[in-house]
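ERR on first pass: missing label on line 2. Operator R.T. fixed the label and resubmitted. Corrected input:
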Amino acid sequence: MDYLQFALISLIKVVTIVGVVLTGCAYMTYAERRIVALFQQRVGPNLAGPFGLLQPMADAIKMIFKEDIRPAAAEGWFYNLAPVITFIPALLTFTVIPFGDTVTVFGIETKLILSDMNIGVLFFFAVTSLSVYGILLAGWSSGSKYSLMGGLRASAQMISYEVAYGLSLVGVLLLAQTLSLQELVHQQQGFWGMYVWKQPIGFMVFFICAVAETNRSPFDLAEAESELVAGFHTEYSSMRFGTFFIGEYAAMIGVGAIATTIFFGGWQSPFEFLDFIPPVLWFAIKVSGFMFFYIWMRATLPRFRYDQLMNFGWKMLFPIALLNTMLTAGIRLWLK
Amino acid sequence: MDKVEIYLPILIMVAVGALIATVLMGLSVLIGKRTRSKVKMQPYECGVDPVGDTKHPVPVKYYMVAILFIIFDIEVVFLYPWAVIYDSLGMFGFLEMLVFVAILITGYFYILGKGALKWD
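pass 2 clean. output:
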């Protein structure tokens, strides 16, 4: 294939994906506020546009017009760079996620996946662990004690849960014998073919770790408002803060997309009689389910204490994940 | 598979992401209003004058967690290629990994006994 044509097609796909993800992030904030309001018997934002649907736009415009404060104690370029470093890995997750099979648009056949690499799962772990650098840099370079504490806590938490996070997927890999995400989706035919039924413990450990990795409630100790003001982004204002915010939501959507791909059959339709719904839409529906679950947890669960958090990660999730791996290996060998 | 086909889209994604982040942050730097004062540029500390600075040592527990993370995460990375070719390894692969995990577990209980993961 001609490289120039390939680069152009890739650029179109990248712009589409980024556009959809950023819109998704914007409406995720709206959905979060409306749904949490429902849980708490309030109304939530309902004045900007019909049902308050223009609220995310209003928020973005407001954020751009806010004053950009750069504290005197901030450390040079690191302070400017930190939001970008958290933002890019969040987007990079979407390069390996399959949104569907091969399609033909205007006579050009193309895959609905940006980079169909055979080590997709490893790539996902590699880029998600990069985001810890942005958070640590932000906390350290702000020159504020709250930021430093938040950054330290966040990085210790993220690397602690990273261990069980990686281990929770080994069970699926044992069954699937591949690291390619497109191939994982092809293996999960129908409702009972989903890997969540074969690896329920793996899925639960994976999802708990994913929530901790994205610093979401009930693991949001990095920005515990009641003790640390806002944690690592205390000193960030206007769109610099906005970039952190978008990065966090993009990471949430990315984790939802990966969980969908690995455990819930990705873009495959779970029931035959629902095959008329296009694969991309199936994917969006499944990811939305995860996003709702995120919001539900935030509305329901109180925050962990820091020692509880570390104990839970190291003394509960890690042994469970390891046990699950070895059990799966044993059963796999026995059945063969 | 062609290397360009795998890594070019990732490069494009990095470029687009960096561009969007820079443009967003640049916009607010250009458009946002600016009033500067010495007090405003101080680190935030709930309204009182900031006490001390951030250039003091951090608790050693954080370093311990980082070191343990390196050890255990490398063990996890060893499990990945093993899992992918598990079917062709058969009984041999299972026993080998049992030995490996036994060593790992010994180390795990050792650090638990030493209290390296205690947080109080």
